[in-house]
Specification:
240 residues, mainly beta, 4 helices, 15 strands, 13% helix, globular, disordered N terminus
Length: 240
């Protein structure tokens, strides 16, 4: 969903070129240890970026961290975008708070959220200033970052159907998400076969397919728009 939004947003980018410096990139990624999960991001067969994520234990739950880089060629110019998401969850991976930052090269946009039941408190910061708002959702919200872990914590059963109030911090919108567990499958990723559960996810009019392990690690994701995210080794993932 974030990638689709970025593709549309990229048409409005006015800066002709953004150079993503190697020292800054190395500093951002140095926080990720050997257990981090790396993924390559592809659009219609062409690699456009990568992401890396990890789960860090906390006293009363976990902190989920994810960084991403996207490169696009628009109107003959190369642009780069950075994304960072941090979600703080309880031991069942239910969302408590989060922070999201997107920098498409024209200035960073930051969104911080805190969950209190079905109440979502948001603080959005841009170059124009800071705005606070409160959203009342039908149920406690979930992010794409904690969704697969939350599903795995509750148990994955073929044929099961789940519904969530899904919040997208990139667009500040929420909509119902329906997840169907289609069954077990084996996916080849990072040079080896990985046992997974195959899921069909319906978010508004968008239907995507995901393969996740029994502990909630996303191995592969596909959307009808041609976007594919797949688990890779760190060297393969970062080779653009």
């Amino acid at each position: 969903m974030v990638l689709a939004w970025l593709a549309q947003m990229g048409l409005l980018v006015r800066r002709a070129y953004l150079q993503d410096s190697a020292p800054n990139l190395a500093a951002d990624l140095s926080r990720y240890g050997s257990a981090a999960a790396w993924k390559g991001i592809y659009y219609r067969g062409e690699k456009i970026g990568f992401s890396v994520g990890q789960v860090v234990p906390a006293d009363d739950g976990f902190e989920l961290q994810e960084d991403g880089r996207l490169q696009m060629t628009l109107l003959g110019a190369s642009t780069a975008a950075r994304l960072r998401t941090v979600a703080r969850v309880d031991r069942a991976f239910a969302l408590r708070s989060f922070s999201f930052t997107l920098d498409p090269g024209t200035g960073a946009i930051s969104v911080a959220g805190r969950v209190d039941g079905s109440r979502l408190e948001l603080t959005t910061t841009t170059s124009a200033g800071t705005r606070n708002e409160v959203k009342h959702l039908p149920e406690p919200p979930a992010l794409s970052l904690n969704l697969s872990r939350r599903l795995a914590a509750g148990g994955l059963t073929p044929g099961a159907r789940h519904e969530f109030a899904m919040f997208d911090p990139a667009t500040l919108t929420n909509a119902p998400l329906v997840v169907e567990v289609l069954g077990r499958d084996v996916v080849r990723a990072a040079g080896r076969p990985i046992p997974t559960f195959k899921l069909r996810m319906t978010f508004g009019t968008l239907v995507s397919t995901s393969w996740i392990t029994e502990v909630g690690e996303v191995v592969r994701e596909e959307s009808p728009m041609g976007l594919v995210v797949v688990k890779e080794s760190p060297g393969t993932a970062t080779a653009l």
